[in-house]
Specification:
With 79 residues, the chain is mainly beta. It is 5% helix and 37% strand. The protein is built from 1 helix and 4 strands.
Length: 79
Amino acid sequence: MFADTEPLRVEVGRTWLWPGEVPELTVGSTVELDTRGQQDVQVYLASRLIARGQAVVVAGKLGVEVSEIVPVEQSEGNR
C-alpha cells in the first residue's frame, strides 16, 4: 500500500510565524499552538490522515497512543 520511504507525520497543533520571527527562536523558546494539550493528535502517512490519538510520554519519550484508525474512505481528500 505505501512505500517504505513515505514520511509519517504526527500533528499536535499548528501555528503561523512570520519569516522574521523564525530567526528569533532559540533553544527553550515556546511556540504557542492552536490546540489544547488534551486534544487528539493526528497521524498522517504520505499526507493522508490515517489515525488519531493522544500524545503520551513513555520512558521519557514522546509517543502517540492511537485511539482511532481512520478508514480510507474518510481519509481521502484530507490534506
